[in-house]
Amino acid sequence: MRFSAYPINYVNKLTLCLFIDRYMPYQQPHVKMFPVAGVHMLSHETSCGQSRCKVRLTGLTRDHSGGAYRCEVSSDAPAFRLASETHNVTVAALPKVNPVIIGLQDSYQLGDTLAVECRSSAGDPIPELNWYINDVKVTKKTQNNN
Fold it and tell me: Cα–Cα distance between 12 and 124 in angstroms, integer?
């Protein structure tokens, strides 16, 4: 049996398979690691054997670490059978603090103008800010109807 674990990066709609780790029982050494740009594997917490292959990655980034991860099992000659499973992984950096509302008063008079601002800290992907009034999302259509 041969185990491989690697992310699949998509570049210009072409699939580029990048190996991180491979276990080969009939070859020496049994385990071979392949460096992948932007993917940092903790080698002391990575192990492959005849029945499993475990990898631990650190320092994940959206550009290099997100995408389709596949574990592949194949047999050697003469059969060369192959089985695999793929899971999509999304790497996101949430804002470090909750959004802040600036300029909102506790009460207003009929006919007043309300001008407030909602601010968020940085995130990746960029956070999308929306206003809700009584659990109804405010849209341009909502604004024009009032």
Answer: 22
